[in-house]
Design goal:
Structural class: alpha+beta
Oligomer: single chain
Number of strands: 3
Largest sheet: 3 strands, mixed
Helix content: 25-40%
Radius of gyration: 19 Å
Length: 78
């Protein structure tokens, strides 16, 4: 008799968990570089950038933040 649950609900192995982590980090890097391009082009063309963040700082939760040149740089918790 076959299981009612689909195979996707099986517990991940250490290898598949590592593969998922690599994909998430890869997407994160691509998104960061894309947004960095927007930031650099805005600054180059004289547009004031109030905040540049990696992640989200919901409810003010931040891992780190600093200000330089009128721009707040944030590493968000989420």
């Amino acid at each position: 008799m076959t299981s009612i649950l689909p195979f996707a609900l099986a517990l991940p192995t250490a290898g598949s968990a590592f593969a998922i982590l690599k994909v998430v980090l890869g997407f994160g890097l691509v998104i960061f570089l894309h947004e960095l391009g927007h930031f650099l082009m805005a600054r180059r063309n004289g547009v004031f950038v109030e905040k540049f963040a990696i992640g989200f700082d919901f409810f003010g939760l931040k891992l780190a933040s600093w200000e330089r040149g009128g721009t707040e740089y944030v590493v968000g918790l989420f």
